[in-house]
């Protein structure tokens, strides 16, 4: 007997498991049982598992009987004519939804030509292999799987019109591209998604060549003339918010320009952009450490003799100000209430972001790179017809990664730009390369996409033909302006006495094993002594027993708590983190000792 489990509950047993599973599936296809039910026979545990739970991932497949698909040409014609719809295909048992469990019992063919008598199902389309973002990549059947995954992730990081009502939203760190364009080379998924209403890239003219060494590895060279004309410009928005909190005893925060008596009052210069209500006026240009919203709070600790204490009545400064390295223009301000009923002020800053060295760009094929150099238009290479590329891409990025789709898109984009047509290049249904070549030839260009080009610096003709065309490029949200991070002496943690962590906190930059190797390779090994003593501390150690001695700063004397004042105590340099480790070892009841030796 084989046990049956319905939604993980035992409901009974059957003798012939395969017949039971087959009968239930037939009843489901006939409409006698809800089509939300899925079941499969697990031979390993000898159980029939029936699932009707919500939240399962299920996908549609065409049913195959005796090696023949149940979806016929007649059905497809009736679908196109509008006589038939998808729901009727499911109801009449032509298409069924399969979950991960039942898929174990299925043998699915990718195309109709592959069908045999052993097959149970047929894919609706081979493109169902790909996800939503991946199916936006043109010619994706010419790219490797790892690059498609990367291309799919890259599209999520691209700048564009992320929402048409972005002017009325206060999203954290949002970017809007100024001149988004429809892609020349697209897939049918762009139409389904209405991608053209909110695109996230631009059509660049691209030359695949090495030029002056500034596009080595994954770097790209960008035409500064194109950027001056508005290529890849974007605006970065960042919100700041402040709430007027209420405290016990009837005390509350006050939004406004803090009084000069306030504890922690900055300088008048820091508050110069605030209006009488304590909020920076719209279109105010702020720099780092300028106050956006002024606020003062009651003192943190109230004494019992509040009315007699002058210090207790002094308020403290708690304004919202721009962080280190931040700047921008006040774009808009919202005055509203929080869930607790407190007054809430939200202000948004905007900053124009012009592409600079270090900003990240990528094509849809996972070919990402940062700007290595911005060349003036007159120094860029040009074709015989006077075309200068917007971007110069390194040819060494292609062989190892095998992104043939990137190369074909350049060819197809060139044809689309010359012919004034959009090219549909959906996976497994792409226009053939031979057709692209033939049409390019008709338009008076070389069929392989190459052209004679001249060096913009010397004016000499290149000895080789250069591959040049059009491609849809994305500007990614990873910009040098957001990553720039420097640190001098600054805040340290109380526990370890090492610099605090993180860019926003003005924290330290860690040097790892490989950074150390770089410094040694540069012949700057003495620099390591300076770099690696952020928590250098001088400790006094007893030479007899090895315990850390007690040092009296007032009398400038040291004595060992175990051996007494007569013991010889020597000062040594130690990392404070190491001293912390010794203290933790002591807390375990183990007494560590430090044995000192002479340096010479």
Task: Sum up the structure in keywords.
600 residues; alpha+beta; Dna-directed Rna Polymerase Ii 140kd Polypeptide, Chain: B, Domain 6; OB fold (Dihydrolipoamide Acetyltransferase, E2P); 4 domains; 6-stranded mixed beta barrel; 34 strands; 18% helix
Summarize the structure.
This protein has 600 residues and is an alpha+beta fold. Helix content is 18%, strand content 26%.
Written account of the structure:
With 600 residues, the protein is of the alpha+beta class. The protein folds into 4 domains: 128 residues, no CATH class; 194 residues, Dna-directed Rna Polymerase Ii 140kd Polypeptide, Chain: B, Domain 6; 119 residues, OB fold (Dihydrolipoamide Acetyltransferase, E2P) (Beta Barrel); 52 residues, DCoH-like (Alpha-Beta Complex). Helices cover 18% and strands 26% of the residues. A 6-stranded mixed beta barrel has the order 12-26-13-24-23-30. Strands 5, 6, 7, 8 and 9 form a 5-stranded mixed β-sheet that branches. Strand 3 and strand 4 form a beta hairpin. Helix 7 runs parallel beside helix 8. The longest helix has 16 residues. The protein starts with a strand and ends in a 13-residue tail after the last helix. The mean pLDDT is 91.
């Amino acid at each position: 007997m084989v046990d049956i489990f319905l939604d993980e509950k035992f409901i009974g047993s059957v003798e012939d498991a395969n017949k039971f599973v087959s009968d239930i599936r037939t009843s489901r296809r006939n409409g006698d049982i809800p089509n939300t039910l899925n079941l499969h026979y697990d031979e390993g545990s000898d159980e029939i598992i029936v699932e009707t739970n919500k939240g399962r991932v299920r996908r549609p497949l065409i049913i195959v009987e005796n090696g023949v698909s149940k979806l016929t040409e007649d059905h497809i014609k009736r679908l196109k004519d509008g006589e038939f719809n998808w729901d009727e295909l499911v109801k009449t048992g032509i298409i069924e939804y399969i979950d991960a469990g039942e898929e174990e019992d299925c043998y699915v063919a990718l195309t109709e030509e592959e069908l045999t008598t052993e097959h149970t199902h047929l894919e609706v389309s081979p493109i169902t292999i790909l996800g939503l973002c991946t199916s936006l990549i043109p010619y994706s059947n010419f790219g490797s799987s790892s690059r498609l995954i990367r291309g799919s992730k890259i599209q999520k990081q691209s700048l564009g019109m992320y929402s048409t009502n972005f002017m009325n939203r206060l999203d954290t760190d949002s970017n809007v591209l100024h001149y988004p364009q429809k892609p020349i080379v697209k897939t049918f998924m762009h139409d389904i998604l209405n991608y053209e209403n909110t695109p996230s890239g631009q059509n660049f003219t691209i030359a695949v060549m090495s030029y002056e060494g500034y596009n080595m590895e994954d770097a790209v060279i960008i035409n500064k003339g194109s950027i001056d004309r508005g290529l890849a410009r974007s605006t970065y928005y960042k919100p700041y918010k402040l709430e007027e909190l209420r405290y016990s005893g009837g005390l509350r925060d006050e939004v406004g320009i803090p009084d000069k008596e306030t504890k922690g009052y900055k300088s008048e210069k820091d508050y110069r952009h605030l209006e009488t209500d304590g909020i920076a006026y719209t279109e105010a240009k702020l720099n780092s450490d300028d106050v956006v919203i002024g606020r003062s709070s009651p003192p943190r600790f109230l004494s019992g003799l509040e009315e007699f204490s002058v210090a207790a009545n002094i308020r403290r400064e708690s304004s919202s100000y721009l962080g280190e390295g931040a700047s921008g223009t006040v774009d808009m301000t919202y005055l509203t209430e929080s869930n607790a009923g407190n007054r809430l002020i939200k202000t948004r800053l905007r900053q124009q972001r012009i592409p600079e060295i270090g900003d990240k760009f990528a094509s849809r094929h996972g070919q990402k790179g940062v700007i290595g150099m911005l060349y003036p238009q007159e120094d860029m290479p040009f074709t015989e017809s006077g075309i200068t590329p917007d971007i110069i891409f390194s040819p060494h990025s292609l062989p190892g990664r095998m992104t043939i789709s990137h190369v074909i898109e350049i060819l197809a984009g060139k044809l689309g730009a010359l012919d004034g047509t959009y090219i549909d290049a959906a996976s497994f249904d792409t226009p053939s390369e031979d057709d692209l070549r033939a049409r390019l030839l008709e338009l008076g260009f070389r069929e392989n996409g190459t052209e004679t080009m001249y060096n913009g610096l010397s004016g000499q003709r290149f000895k080789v033909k250069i591959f040049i065309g059009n491609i849809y490029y994305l500007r990614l949200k990873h910009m040098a302006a957001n990553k720039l991070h420097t640190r001098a002496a600054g805040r340290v943690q109380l526990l370890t006495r090492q610099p605090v962590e993180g860019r926003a906190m003005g924290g330290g930059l860690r040097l790892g094993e490989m950074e150390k190797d770089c410094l040694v390779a540069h012949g700057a090994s003495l620099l390591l002594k300076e770099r690696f003593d952020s928590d250098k501390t001088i400790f006094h150690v007893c030479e007899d027993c090895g315990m850390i001695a007690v040092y009296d700063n007032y009398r400038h004397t040291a004595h060992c708590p175990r051996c007494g004042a007569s013991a010889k105590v020597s000062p040594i340099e130690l990392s404070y983190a190491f001293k912390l480790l010794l203290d933790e070892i002591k807390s375990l009841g183990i007494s560590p000792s430090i044995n000192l030796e002479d340096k010479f």
